[in-house]
Design goal:
five-stranded parallel sheet, Zeta_carotene_desat/Oxidored, alpha/beta, Polyamine Oxidase, Chain A, domain 2, oxidoreductase, 3 domains, FAD/NAD(P)-binding domain, seven-stranded mixed sheet, single chain
Amino acid sequence: MNPSVLDRRPEAPGLGGWPATGRADRPAPSAARRPVRPPGRRGPMTPIAVVGGGLAGITAALALGEAGLPVTVYEARPRLGGATHSFERDGLVVDNGQHVFLRCCTAYRGLLDRLGVTDRVRLQDRFDLRVLTPAGRPGRLRRAALPGPLHLMPALAAYSLLRPADRLRAVRCALALRRLDPADPGLDGIGLGDWLAAHGQRDTARRALWELFAVAALNIGVEEAALGPAAMVFRTALLGRADAADLGVPAVPLGDLHGAAAQLAIRERGGRVRLAAKVTAIEPGPVLVVDGERIDAAAVIVATPHRQAAHLVPWDAVPDRERWAGLGESPIVNVHLHYERPVTDLPFAAVVDSPVQWVFDRTRASGVRAGQYLAVSVSAADRWIDEPTAKLRAEFVPALEQLFPAARNARLRDFFVTRERRATFRQAPGSGALRPGPATRWPGLYLAGSWTDTGWPDTMEGAVRSGLTAARLVRSHLAGGAS
């Protein structure tokens, strides 16, 4: 892999591998929607089954629907969206966790386009990140109007949270990262922390620079992370195209952005969505067992988290499925604070030397009419995941007051915590070798999900790319091609 990987379009000329089928708010033209069916088959096609309604399953269903293929999505929960969803609390619309994307996330942006919700996100014109500290000494990383990878060099050279000598070492380290090939399987066995230490990155530089991006992207501490996925993140987002790292955030609740919009889009393309429908087994045929009912399928895409997939996929389809348990899981905790009045004018910021890692102003997006609603996102949250809410309040309220002095005199209307125990798999050394490809030994049975071997870390972009790949393989299978 090299920094131009995101410019490649192996599946089709559309954004991020999506078929170029016209505007996202209408079905594809009739020529593009002509069904692909197995040779010799006549009459109505048996629907393709997509098990799991997260981003991978949504993407696969949309891509197949745009090809004119009948699809049914089976989701055990009463909503679509998977790990990206919303709920209501005393009139406040709350996302289960704060999700961001980058301009280089072309497949995910293609999904937003297909869902017709591109106008419901905010994407920076130029990467610009404020970095706060409890001591009140802020830093700033903003890309210059230079081609990549030179665009961030001025920001590193002037980064006030590092001493001049550490800034120079950081620039040298960035250039060394750019020379790595993330596709090299040898990087999977190397720890990011060890590599950074070997390239002169002292503790201050790790905390004030590398952790900002590595922990947020990989959901694991720098000392535990694998070098392979970290190199992919740094090379693609920060050291590739100049605009690759421009940050995007949802401007509406995730339930509207993904779940509700996806349900409508799938149905507009001729697909079906069955919510609260639990798939308990997959049998030869393929046949699904859904709440005790046996249902034929033309093909099956299993787009669930890895632990559920290991229970669903038959042993003779994936004999080594037990290995997936080795991927483990890594938690994320989100702390939510509703103040009686505004305490900051920043839309979001990163934080160092504090239990707060990232903080986002979710006031407008969540429909808050009075005061200010801040969401604090804490990745690699093993330390916090089992702590009671009272303990988190005692830690995070004073931490926010250190960052935003106006919070000291602002009454808290509400404080609560959301926890995702299995937010991602644990992207530690050796984890890359455990990620399976999309095909199984059963013709017509495929895997999707951000935990599969997508070439990306466990992210929304990886999930969407996996759905696109699985849909392409299903089309090839039904057309009589190699699977």
